[in-house]
Amino acid sequence: MHALDVDWDHPVDPRPGPQLDHVRAYVASVGADGHLWHGVHTLLLTTAGRATGRAVRTPLVYGEDAGRIILVASGYGAPHHPGWYRNLTAHPEVRFQAGATLRRATAHTAGPAERETYWYLMTGLWPAYEEDQAATDREIPLVVLEPF
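The structure assignment produced for this chain is given below.
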């Protein structure tokens, strides 16, 4: 699957519930409503489905470092990595909207040194990530988006 085959303009959104409400408010307001959520910045990440190739959109808390975007694949401490993370490991080209800004990026899982640095950045922004890590046996991956 090549990124050119993905219809990035018509992503699948989350199932009905708080995440879908967040996405709809974010999109309708061009990021004015939803970018700041519970005191932290969030973005809308669009990945290519690893099996379907369809664009899938997910709201996520993010951090920034020297132009890089940092995400945490916590999945609320679930035993398995979240779908969006499994998607980008199969297809690392992604799209994201942070506020009104739409960008393309390449994603990679943070290596050990990056993870150590960025874990503290992200738990400083959203301390619940520590609880998520304590709730699961898997090491929660951190993802680095390199915009282009």
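Interim note for the steering committee: The two ends are 20 Å apart (CA to CA). The mean pLDDT is 96.
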